Amino acid sequence: MSTVVKQKRRSGRTRISSKNQVTLSVDALRRSGLRTGDELDVKVSGRGRITLARADDPLLKMAGTFRYPKGYLKKLRAEWDA
Predict the structure, then answer these.
(1) CA nearest neighbour of 25 among 13, 37, 7, 40
(2) With pLDDT > 90 as the criterion, what percentage of the chain qualifies?
(3) φ/ψ (deg, to 5) at 62
(4) Mean model confidence pLDDT for the chain
(5) Which element (helix H / strand E) includes 32?
(6) What is the C-alpha to C-alpha distance for residues 73 and 35, in angstroms, rounded to an integer?
């Protein structure tokens, strides 16, 4: 009977699975500010190098940038009551 022993990997390293998946360490995710469910952009940064970055949400970027003219909402609400 043979015993299979997994080799301990060096910290900060991962391996690409047969399904082309990688596991990122909790420490790396915490330090980068990434969380479960974040969408990431994947870019090739050179031979043997891939960069992951949180995908920007254009709606969140624009939130709060548009303002109603002064008095517009008051006028609009008055129309509702009429």
Answers:
(1) 13
(2) 41
(3) -90, -15
(4) 86
(5) helix 26-32
(6) 37
Spatial contact of 28 and 12, defined as CB atoms under 8 Å apart: yes
Name the one residue in this structure whose structure tokens are 């970027």: 61
d(CA 17, CA 14): 9
The reply to whether 78 falls in a domain is: no
pLDDT for position 58:
78
In a domain, 44, yes or no: yes
Task: Tally the domains of the chain.
Answer: 1
Give pTM, 2 decimals: 0.53
For position 50, what pLDDT does the model report? 94
CA distance 15 to 20: 9
**What is the CA angle 15-13-26, rounded to 5?**
100
Residues near 15 by beta carbon (within 8 Å), at least 6 away in sequence: 9, 22
Domain with 33 in it: 1-63
